[in-house]
User: What shape does this take?
Amino acid sequence: DTGVSQNPRHKITKRGQNVTFRCDPISEHNRLYWYRQTLGQGPEFLTYFQNEAQLEKSRLLSDRFSAERPKGSFSTLEIQRTEQGDSAMYLCATQIGYEQYFGPGTRLTVT
Amino acid sequence: SQQGEEDPQALSIQEGENATMNCSYKTSINNLQWYRQNSGRGLVHLILIRSNEREKHSGRLRVTLDTSKKSSSLLITASRAADTASYFCATAPQNSGGSNYKLTFGKGTLLTVNP
Assistant: This one.
């Protein structure tokens, strides 16, 4: 247990529905990252927060994706109008120093 | 896009044997890290090696880095069944201002240690 928690752990949704995931970081870690991991691949960077400021978004993050980190604490990742290609593991990580601490991930299945 | 490429994609060994995994990358880096992921779980940081270091040890882990060849290796000695997992290398870009920022992961090596 790294101290980073994610909810829910699993989410099954129908295509076209909206979903929201939550990440609760280690409290003193001001950098927070979202990654997406598909089967047989390594995690791919989606977006990054320094406190409450979203500093970079990957081209993987289409207009249907939005992330927030109000008050620099927990973060949410919302996917609107889900597509089957959104099925993946969504990982949150926080950082202090050089090391990133990953949560257990939310596995999304879009049917 | 994936920067690192691990080799082999899968490795199966007997308990007690050593396991070696390799990683190649494409661009200049600030540091390279190795992470472990148990099936369906999050990643756990194992070891970091800076671009000006050539070798680093941590317990049963030994990491080497050759920046001229843009490659790294992870050696796990005296493997145990509990080492069964996927292992990923991840790189931080050289212009990352000294902090990790936006790690780029390889596809991973699936290690199976048979009891």
